[in-house]
Design brief:
Layout: H1 4-18, E1 28-34, H2 42-52, E2 57-63, H3 79-92, E3 101-104, E4 108-111, H4 115-154, E5 175-179, E6 183-188, E7 197-212, E8 220-237, E9 242-247, E10 256-263, E11 269-276, H5 280-283
Helix pairs in contact: 1-4
Length: about 280
């Protein structure tokens, strides 16, 4: 039998450490679906670049393929990114896809060039996570007090109890990444409830400048930030602690890695983490 008093301080500390010091306990994931062939995308690309520098945000650029017909084939686009956007459209009940589209934490989508709407969506999601974390702390405190009273009365520790997440609120799942030249280690902590979440691995290039000679953006040089050069599912998270070990230095060129734990594959984000390696890209 495991004492609740021993478990909850560890759990709550993990919730805070997983996302750093930002309110809400973890970073917010912001995904931009964009295209070099889309004339309305450059302002959204610039916004994502600013978000990529913001603490508490994991900003990812996902160039798509379906605007290649407009006179210029996107040099960074992939079918994996296009499939991801279409899966979001299906999950959110949209009739189709568009660019520039920003998806915030798998919860809501907004036009990626509308700065005020993007900022509002991020702020709303952060507020939701802050409430979830505060309520989890309150539940833990009440349960710990109850266990202490039971111990004082009977001298017998109670079994481990993990409270359910308050209705309508997502749990905050701690994610930790450790990388060496030989191995990528992903450690995901336990969370209340039963989940069917996908563990996504994003290999990212932190900044890529492209000069576009033809198409709607002809003559422009645009810098894309945290561009997904590879995207793949690497595991399934059911709510229990999970550790994954992947070979190091695999796949296409990249200098950062993000891991996102996402309910149902394309639903609400439960946990996320990112590491950057400034020297990695040069070593390829």
């Amino acid at each position: 039998m495991v004492s609740l008093r021993r478990i909850f301080p560890i759990l709550l500390a993990a919730l805070c450490v997983a996302g750093g010091a930002q309110a809400g306990g973890r970073p917010i994931v912001v995904e931009l679906f964009t295209s070099q062939g889309c004339s309305s995308c450059p302002p959204a690309d610039a916004l994502l670049g600013r978000l990529a520098q913001r603490p508490g945000v994991i900003a990812i650029s996902l160039p798509i393929t379906y605007w290649d017909m407009l006179g210029w084939k996107d040099t960074l686009a992939s079918e994996a990114n296009t499939r991801r956007q279409k899966a979001y459209a299906a999950a959110m009940g949209h009739g189709g896809v568009y660019t520039p589209q920003i998806v915030v934490d798998g919860v809501v989508d907004v036009v990626g060039s509308r700065v005020s709407q993007v900022e509002a969506a991020i702020a709303d999601r952060r507020a939701q996570l802050a409430v979830a974390l505060a309520q989890a702390r309150d539940i833990a405190r009440v349960e710990a007090d109850a266990e202490r009273a039971a111990d004082d009365a009977q001298g017998t520790p109670t079994a481990l109890y993990v409270p359910s997440t308050p209705a309508g609120l997502d749990p905050i799942v701690p994610v930790e990444l450790r990388e060496t030249p030989q191995e990528m280690r992903i450690d995901i902590g336990a969370a209340p409830g039963t989940h069917n979440a996908t563990v996504w691995l994003f290999q990212l290039r932190s900044a890529v400048s492209v000069t576009i000679p033809t198409g709607e953006n002809a003559g422009h040089t645009i810098t894309y930030h945290n561009v997904a050069s590879d995207l793949r599912a690497v595991g399934v998270y059911r709510g229990r602690a999970l550790s994954l070990s992947l070979p190091g230095k695999t796949g296409v060129q990249h200098d950062s890695i993000a891991v996102v734990v996402q309910q149902g594959g394309f639903g609400h984000v439960l946990g996320a983490a990112m590491i950057s390696r400034p020297n990695y890209y040069a070593e390829q």
